[in-house]
Specification:
Blueprint: H1 2-24, E1 51-58, E2 64-67, E3 82-87, E4 92-97, E5 99-105, E6 111-116, E7 123-132, E8 135-139, E9 144-146, E10 149-150, E11 152-154, E12 158-162, E13 166-170, E14 175-177, E15 186-191, E16 194-198, E17 211-215, E18 219-223, E19 233-238, E20 241-245, E21 249-251, E22 255-259, E23 263-267, E24 273-275, E25 279-283, E26 289-294, H2 297-302, E27 306-308, E28 324-329, E29 333-335, E30 340-341, E31 349-351, H3 353-356, H4 358-376, H5 387-397, H6 415-426, E32 442-443, H7 446-455, H8 461-480
Parallel strand pairs: 4-6, 5-7, 6-8, 7-12, 8-13, 11-14, 12-15, 13-16, 15-17, 16-18, 17-19, 18-20, 19-22, 20-23, 21-24, 22-25
Antiparallel strand pairs: 1-2, 1-5, 3-4, 9-10, 23-28, 26-27, 26-28, 29-31, 30-32
């Protein structure tokens, strides 16, 4: 029955794609002030030390150079609210616990991972990171903790310059960046993928301030229960930009976005708005694009298309009443090379604009794959875009089993992600490109997600046969032909 429903929905989606084509032609709340430690942080003797090129400064203390002498406990034993350590084998600087205002200067080969497993700020003050590779800050910090302090993982301005991916996530109900009555802004420069996620509550936000992001790959800002950005949003040089919320606004201010891919501003509270101020969108490279808006995605797909064919023309209405806004450029690309390293910028793609018009094809592809994946994946799960996310999702759906062997992938530093990768490889669900490498940032297409999910035995045999036997052709058919309804015979049912 479910398969028949899926077929019906698939047929409807293809017809909808045809309509699109015809219309568009293409430290420290618990421990007190971190600066009030009993003694200055310890610094090891520099005699005969190996300098790793990393400098750590916390609060107003003297800068600490990280060496082989102090790398196991960079802040020293006098600081007990958190521990910073550096592993030269994996080039990873790890911080566990709660810290004061933190400044880290590092080579662009160093990954930085800061986390707390208690209800504390991870960074109680400004966070400045300069020169790292991947940057991850995660914690579980709940909402208001006092009359003037709201729970957050970064209680200050965040300024991150790096060459890899950025993940900032609060799994509790507090802010991700914020935490007090004053605006706390987020600035990211030079990164690849930038992801900022928060559950939030009725009076907390993913970013309690403005966000300015310069990156080469995707920007994803998510707020499950409130406003995502409580200020302006500026994005430059990105690929796809997605902001999702469930409050009064997705962006409580204006948004200026320059990118090469798809822009999605979605407020799942249909009585809310995508943004309160002006949206300024500039395609890069310059070219035609289409804009759809409505109370939700379905309404937007059915709404009249706002389209420009003027080379480089900027889209910028002064105000919006819609909860959902989607912009698709004619040059939108569909990734088609599984496991390509997305972080390298060498993602393979098929440019469908030359076939039937890029915007229409991309929409058709997304509709088709969305329908399949919404039926297959756990409710509320984000669609994985890289190997790490896919392994994590499958491992969690299987109950987070322990792998037979200790994780040995040097390019996966997060412990649970390492378990997920190790287990998926042991089970033959995913392959590892090398004995010590997993490539968690390797790009996976939606087709690959469907096939791998089936391989993990989450799909019934008839459906799995469909996926293995013809799904890639089916999806390409949706992209390039977009409109010819497929019969049960065509689907081998």
């Amino acid at each position: 029955m479910k398969l028949r429903k899926l077929t019906q929905r698939m047929t409807s989606a293809l017809l909808a794609g045809a309509m699109v084509l015809s219309l568009s032609a293409p430290a420290l709340a618990a421990a007190g002030d971190a600066g009030a430690s009993a003694a200055p942080y310890e610094a090891a003797s520099a005699a005969e030390a190996v300098n790793y090129g990393i400098t750590v400064t916390m609060d107003d203390s003297e800068a600490i150079k990280v060496t082989n002498k102090n790398c196991e406990n960079i802040l020293g034993s006098n600081y007990t609210s958190g521990k910073l350590s550096y592993d030269p084998k994996t080039s990873t600087l790890t911080g566990t616990g709660s810290f004061g205002a933190l400044k880290i200067e590092a080579p662009n080969t160093v990954d930085i991972m800061l986390s707390s497993d208690t209800d504390d700020d991870v960074v109680d003050g400004d966070l400045l990171i300069d020169g790292a590779h991947n940057v991850t800050v995660t914690g579980t910090r709940d909402g208001q903790t006092s009359s003037n302090h709201y729970g957050t993982i970064i209680n200050g301005d965040s300024n991150i310059t790096c060459t890899g991916n950025v993940l900032l996530e609060n799994k509790g109900t507090g802010d991700v960046v914020g935490g007090s009555g004053d605006y706390k802004d987020l600035k990211v420069t030079g990164a690849q993928d930038v992801t900022v996620r928060g559950k939030c509550g009725s009076s907390t936000y993913t970013v309690y301030g403005s966000a300015e992001i310069n990156c080469s790959c995707d920007v994803t800002i998510t707020c499950e229960s409130s406003t995502a950005v409580l200020g302006s949003l500026i994005v430059t040089k990105a690929r796809n930009v997605t902001v999702t919320s469930n409050g009064s606004h997705s962006v409580e201010g204006s948004a200026a976005i320059t990118c090469s891919g798809v822009v999605t501003l979605e407020n799942k509270n249909e009585s809310g708005r995508a943004l309160s101020g002006q949206l300024t969108y500039t395609p890069s490279p310059a070219g035609a694009y289409e804009v759809r808006a409505g109370a939700n995605r379905s309404a937007a797909e059915a709404a009249e298309v706002v389209r420009t064919d003027d080379e480089g023309k900027t889209y910028g209405p002064a105000s919006h009443t819609e909860a959902y806004i989607r912009i698709v450029p004619a040059t939108a690309v569909i990734p088609d090379v599984p496991d390509t390293d997305a972080s390298s910028g060498a993602v393979g793609a098929v440019i469908v604009g030359t076939a039937i018009g890029g915007a229409a094809a991309f929409v058709g592809y997304e509709i088709a794959t969305d329908i399949i994946l919404r039926d297959l994946l756990p409710a509320g799960a984000d669609i994985p875009v890289n190997r790490g996310q896919l392994a994590w999702l499958i491992w969690g759906a299987k109950g987070a089993p322990e792998p037979e062997n200790q994780p040995a992938f040097t390019d996966v530093s997060e412990p649970e992600m390492a378990k997920a990768a190790q287990w998926c490889v042991e089970q033959g669900i995913l392959t590892a490109p090398g004995e010590t490498t997993f490539r968690p940032n390797g790009w996976v297409t939606r087709v690959k997600v469907i096939q791998t999910w089936g391989h993990a035995a989450f799909i019934s045999l008839p459906y799995l046969q469909l996926m293995q036997g013809g799904n890639k052709n089916l999806l390409r058919y949706a992209c390039y032909v977009a409109g010819n309804a497929l019969s049960n015979e065509d689907l081998n049912l």
